[in-house]
TrEMBL record, chain A:
It comes from the Bacteria. Belongs to the sigma-70 factor family. ECF subfamily. Coiled coil: none annotated. Residues 39-105 form the RNA polymerase sigma-70 region domain. The keyword Transcription applies. Keywords: DNA-binding, Sigma factor, Transcription, Transcription regulation. GO terms for biological process: DNA-templated transcription initiation. InterPro entries: RNA_pol_sigma-70-like, RNA_pol_sigma-70_dom, RNA_pol_sigma70_r2, RNA_pol_sigma70_r4_t2, RNA_pol_sigma_r2, RNA_pol_sigma_r3/r4-like, WH-like_DNA-bd_sf. Residues 10-20 have a biased composition (Low complexity). One of its GO terms (molecular function) is DNA binding. Residues 134-186 form the RNA polymerase sigma factor 70 region 4 type domain. This is RNA polymerase sigma-70 factor, ECF subfamily. Residues 1-20 are annotated as: Disordered.
From TrEMBL, chain B:
It comes from the Bacteria. This is Asp23/Gls24 family envelope stress response protein.
Length: 194, 184
């Protein structure tokens, strides 16, 4: 009888057996902070990685990750299906990162998006000279925020068009177009490494 | 790729009809379809994409891990925010339960202090522990109002409404006078 197994829970100090994620989500949704904290430990690396890949700055990525996790807690009651917590949280992370990227791009005085010469600017670029990964970094910095986000989520995170579309508030077709344009830009920037 | 980027955003097809995204997926996984191996357009595109694909395939030097303290910071922010959302169970005969949000209890307490002349209550928080409710509030008083007396009146008003109306025992009421109301 499966019901009798509950008798094992009698010892109150015994550590709880691993709880399925959906149960953690349900608990967190009903106000159980410990359950939410466990979910945070499980997902913090993923959320931070998404933010870092989009923003390419550790400080900004930390801010975006923190905002995303707090937003997730606030919106948790709206999450209908606990089984999709992971993808749902990742979309929130993508959105926060994109928003921060947009805000940051707006305050940058020089529009480096259309200036390929900015690749050579600054000591950071010099240090990365000859480094393919560094060149990609520089080239990504030259992309408009939404294009960059679409490309990162597709190529680095392996998301589908529909999921990306939700993050950038566009149709899947528009997402496909943006990824295509981003690729064209990156292919051009990396041409010397062919 | 090196072609003119289309503006409708829909066309990422190569001239041979093969999708660029599918080609990239295959290149990243190191496999080539028969068509891709034979088609000059696909082969040209693959050459152009080669540097990009090689970066994407190369694992990052070290796994990305969240910075220390991230979870703690988030939990702290959440707990601070939750304070205003917690509910207090009222002692009622039932059947059924009655809960009042702490923020609603605090609002009631704040409202009750309106009866005290010369006092304007700002922030007001309510917490419950074993001893009962702890109410902490910040108030401005009108210039010339005797502060000790006014604080006593506030205490009396708050205690009355919480104990008589909600039947929640009040352990203590902490009042901080945060400023003066300018006389007009």
């Amino acid at each position: 009888m499966s019901g009798e197994r509950h008798g094992d829970d009698a010892a109150p100090s015994a550590p709880e057996a691993p709880v399925p994620e959906t149960v953690l989500v349900e608990r967190a949704r009903s106000g159980d902070d410990a359950a939410f904290e466990m979910l945070l430990h499980r997902y913090q690396d993923t959320v931070y990685r998404i933010a870092l890949r989009i923003l390419r700055d550790p400080g900004d990525a930390r801010d975006a990750a923190q905002e995303a996790l707090i937003t997730a807690w606030r919106k948790l009651p709206e999450l209908r299906d606990p089984a999709v917590f992971g993808p749902w949280l990742k979309r929130i992370a993508g959105r926060r990162a994109l928003n921060l990227l947009r805000a940051r791009t707006d305050t940058e005085p020089i529009d480096e998006r259309t200036d390929p010469g900015s690749r050579e600017a600054g000591p950071a670029a010099e240090a990365l000279a000859g480094d393919l990964r560094g060149a990609l970094s520089q080239a990504l910095a030259g992309l408009p925020p939404a294009q960059r986000t679409c490309w990162v989520l597709r190529e680095m995170e392996g998301w589908g068009y529909e999921e990306i579309a939700e993050v950038v508030d566009a149709t899947p077709t528009a997402v496909r177009g943006r990824i295509h344009r981003a690729r064209a830009h990156l292919v051009k920037a990396l041409a010397p490494w062919r | 790729m090196a072609l003119e980027p289309p503006d409708d955003g829909a066309d990422d097809l190569l001239p041979c009809g093969h999708g660029e995204d599918a080609l990239v997926r295959n290149l990243m996984e190191g496999r080539t379809t028969e068509h891709e191996a034979a088609c000059p357009y696909c082969r040209a595109a693959a050459r152009e994409l080669a540097p990009l694909v090689s970066v994407l395939r190369e694992p990052e030097a070290e796994a990305v891990t969240a910075p220390a303290g991230l979870v703690d910071d988030v939990m702290r922010a959440i707990r601070a925010e939750r304070g205003s959302r917690r509910s207090l169970a009222l002692d009622a005969p039932g059947p059924g339960t009655t809960h009042v949000r702490e923020s609603a209890v605090a609002a009631l307490a704040r409202f009750s202090a309106r009866s005290v002349p010369g006092v304007l209550v700002g922030r007001c928080r309510v917490r419950r522990d074993r001893d009962g409710l702890t109410v902490s509030l910040g108030a401005r008083v009108a210039h010339g109002t005797p502060i000790t007396e006014a604080a006593d009146e506030v205490r009396h008003a708050v205690r009355e409404v919480l104990e008589d109306r909600l039947r929640l025992p009040v352990a203590r009421i902490d009042i901080e006078v945060t400023g003066l109301i300018e006389a007009d």
